[in-house]
What does this fold into?
Amino acid sequence: MKDVTITMVKSEKGGYRMIVNDDTETEENAKGSKGNDSFFTFDNKSDVKEKLDEIFGKLE
It folds into this structure.
């Protein structure tokens, strides 16, 4: 994982949603197919921070 886009939203119903797209150019996504999204749902900010720290640790 080299280039990522992270989108975070707070739900009106409570909780948080994080969408992570790995933008690293591969043969597949160079053709316009971006099937490398991940979705995570969290109840609180501390869980969001823990996941962000995990993602940042994986960036090259």
User: Anything to note?
Assistant: Helices lie at 27-30, 45-58. The chain has a mean pLDDT of 80. Residues 45-58 form the longest helix (14 residues).
